[in-house]
């Protein structure tokens, strides 16, 4: 069936494709969406695919200003999408360096180490996909749909035919940017309205409901839909309206403070602060819900996320085995076809030479062994780490590509793969006598690189599918992905380090050393990886709380609920999952109206619908604005200027806290109403 497929641009046609302007534009998009993904993943622990918005914007800007061809537009979106994939892998793992035993990994949370691991992981993901393209993308064109890749291909073809759908995405970008200015610069719109019951409340102490009412959260909720958004917020409801009030009513303040001392949030019982406002004189907290969350609920959530990821991996084991066998079988067949010789290779079938995979893998192992920026006290240690990276990488890149081909990148169980890699690495270390805190950073390097590689392999597969549909030259796409990985990594590392620097507002709330890991940027997956790493290698884990989370995830799975989504919701603050749920609820209302009107849409039409395009604009615009404002707040001069135009104090004096929060809630409701009106338009 695949042999009969005819791409939009036939192999005989030679048009502009791998040009300087396409690479530069792709790198710019990779930088923008990479930085936005870092911001979103640190705050919410979630990402959304950037390929479709990049394709939409590339078509519009390319056609109007740069006279690009469809193949150049494909190179733009291929190069740009690498930034989003690598950023997700970096943020999901490398912040874990900050949370290892006794701060033993903090020295490796520096720009050069992050840059090296991001580049190596990104290159590994693309490298391992070179021999898999023919077997997975071409031979199984009819059986592996690669949803995002197919949608991107349709976008590129529709744009070439004159389709005009970019206006909606740009409208979302502009709306989010204006909203962010009023919210994060002028502070006319409250950032996080909340309501909390007092600890002395007889019936329901320390229950907290709130929401970070930002455009990006509403956009994410609309994109993931009501089902997943509902499961996410259900986890938050359990943590913040069940577990925290229960524990707050049962445990005395001194016991909670002692647990915070054990975890390192509080120096000792005689020192005030500790992230939740401990008062040693009055033996109480300014923020009881946060104190209970940090002391107990966060560890329960970490256990639930670990179990949820592992359950997801176990459920996909049959797919993993069949995927690996099928891919290896297809590779053997490709070798036979190659040796038989069939004349000149058509343009649309030219891949980079397979020798690049072999020599590239050897080079990665040697570089990891000799680069001083990576953890390890001997060449032998580092060589083992490099070998484990390549072995796990070859396996999970294959698995990742096959899975995203079936169910899409958004459902790729990367967390489960990373957890399995981390646990497997730790067990290998223990088997050779390497245990203790000195080896924790080395294990995290393996987990981090596999996470980046698997994420990038999923994105690479979707890009190669788009290229196959439009008739691109695979070799040029593969080179573009290498370039995109390197350029994006440069900015991803800078963004991570900059966001980790506490601003004046954060310092005022007690965040003095690292913003990552605080309420501002919780980095849930990074914290989880460190928790597992410490628990296995250094036996440094409160298993009683972690196991509660494990069996909570098992309970959800037995009830037919996706445990990982629920667990992430239980781990994150409710203020993160509640606005995401509202976005999902709007999507549910739109879907119900369509069903009532008997409007049937294909998967591709749904991806390119006005609601989805506006929502991706909200995500991109909100996240990029957040990064820009965070950077401005990091410089003293601009921070003072931002403080001078901050209207929160004035509005609070006039309206009171309740009135100010109500004003913000009405603004968020207005944005939701506008999203609904856009989404129901034909």
From TrEMBL:
Entry superkingdom: Bacteria
GO CC, one annotated term: membrane
Membrane topology category: Multi-pass membrane protein
Transmembrane feature ranges: 20-42, 48-66, 78-99, 111-130, 228-251, 352-371, 383-408, 414-434, 479-499, 545-564, 570-590, 611-635, 655-676
Protein name per the record: OPT family oligopeptide transporter
Predominant location: membrane
Keywords: Membrane, Transmembrane, Transmembrane helix, Transport
GO MF entry, a single one: oligopeptide transmembrane transporter activity
InterPro entries reported for this sequence: OPT, YSL-like
Compartments, record wording: Membrane
